[in-house]
């Protein structure tokens, strides 16, 4: 199963600069600089009233240049992402100092900076820029470790041992009556586990993920037969959309394990994929059993998936679940990104 690869572009790509078009990164940038404003005002003040005056004065000088820097980094992000980490850091610092100098020069026509000299102002801007880059670099290293840990967690939770044993038993059950079907099932099982063991740090095309899901469902149909019904609604979903690897398959496995298997009769899983604006939406719905132990395992799997979405897309992605009228529904939203041609 070939996949078209692209760097996963999590909020902090391994070894690179943060994605300045990510909402979470921009919010952290604004928060970090404002924390520095508060710290500076505390150092310079000798009373609460003095602190408030210092904070208001410094915030008045900082906020507009800060927003200008955020806007500039947002605009040049695609160009910046193609540069090496070292060059990117130099360019970010150059942008910070250039905006700070321009703000100081423009403020000269409106009464200046309240007695703050240019060198002192640029030094403060440089300290803010360096602290910001150090913070994101530290967070990058932490996220890299978290991605590795999440991959191991996902690997253990993704395919349950019972699925492997049941699939092999199902193959043994048809190996005499339908040897070609048994051979195809073994090939599908090998393909599935080959993908599971891959280092999954890159986004893949949606059609690649869907092909993997079809292989998985074919294996489940081998043992569940007509009890497993799946209704796909993906006519309005771009197949070149990039998604985290193994995003949909664990949801289908949960739907089979927690929804279809406990039922004595046939059950239907409904999968809906569509694009809404600049977001990709995925909904998976399945019947609900009354076995509470099944629901506990489902929550653990969803927490794992929610963490993976957070690592890839930060605040721009989300996962919600609800139980209503005998059905369990999972909704996922994430930024829409198309695969390169």
What is the end-to-end distance? 18 Å
CATH arch. level architecture of the largest domain: 2-Layer Sandwich
CATH superfamily of the largest domain: Histidine kinase-like ATPase, C-terminal domain
**Total domains:** 2
> Whole-number radius of gyration?
26 Å
| Unreliable residue stretches | 1-9
Reading the helices and strands in chain order gives EHHHHHHEHEEHEEHEE
Q: Supply the CATH class of the largest domain.
A: Alpha Beta
Largest sheet: 5 strands, mixed
* Strand order in the sheet with the most strands: 3-5-6-8-7
Looking at CATH, which topology of the largest domain would you report? Heat Shock Protein 90
What gross morphology would you assign? elongated
Share of helix, binned: 55-70%
DSSP strand count: 8
Structural class, please? alpha+beta
Put simply, the count of helices is: 9
In terms of DSSP E residues, the strand content is: 5-15%
What average pLDDT do the residues reach?
80
């Amino acid at each position: 199963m070939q996949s078209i690869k692209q760097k996963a572009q999590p909020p902090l790509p391994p070894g690179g600069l943060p994605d300045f078009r990510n909402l979470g990164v921009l919010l952290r940038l604004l928060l970090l600089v404002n924390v520095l404003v508060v710290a500076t005002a505390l150092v310079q003040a000798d009373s609460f009233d003095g602190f408030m005056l210092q904070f208001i004065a410094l915030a008045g000088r900082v906020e507009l240049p800060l927003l200008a820097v955020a806007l500039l980094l947002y605009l040049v992000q695609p160009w910046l992402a193609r540069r090496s980490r070292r060059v990117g850091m130099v360019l970010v610092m150059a942008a910070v100092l250039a905006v700070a100098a321009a703000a100081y020069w423009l403020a000269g026509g409106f009464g200046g900076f309240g007695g703050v000299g240019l060198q002192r102002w640029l030094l403060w801007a440089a300290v803010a820029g360096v602290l910001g880059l150090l913070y994101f670099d530290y967070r990058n290293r932490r996220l890299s470790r978290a991605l590795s840990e999440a991959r191991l967690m996902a690997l253990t939770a993704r395919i349950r041992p019972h699925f492997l044993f049941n699939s092999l038993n199902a193959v043994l059950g048809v190996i005499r009556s339908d040897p070609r079907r048994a051979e195809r099932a073994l090939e599908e099982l090998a393909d599935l586990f080959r993908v599971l063991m891959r280092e999954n740090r890159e986004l893949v095309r949606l059609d690649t993920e869907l092909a993997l899901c079809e292989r998985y469902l074919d294996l489940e149909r081998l043992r569940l037969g007509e009890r497993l019904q799946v209704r796909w609604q993906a006519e309005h979903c771009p197949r070149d959309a990039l998604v985290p690897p193994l995003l949909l398959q664990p949801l289908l496995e949960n739907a089979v394990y927690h929804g279809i298997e406990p039922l004595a009769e046939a059950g239907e899983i409904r999968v809906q994929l569509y694009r809404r604006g600049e977001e990709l939406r995925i909904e998976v719905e399945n019947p609900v059993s009354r076995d509470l132990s099944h629901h506990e395992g489902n929550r653990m799997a969803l927490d794992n998936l929610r963490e993976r979405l957070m690592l890839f897309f930060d605040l721009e992605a989300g996962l919600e679940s609800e139980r209503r009228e005998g059905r369990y529904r999972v909704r996922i939203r994430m930024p829409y990104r198309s695969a390169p041609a």
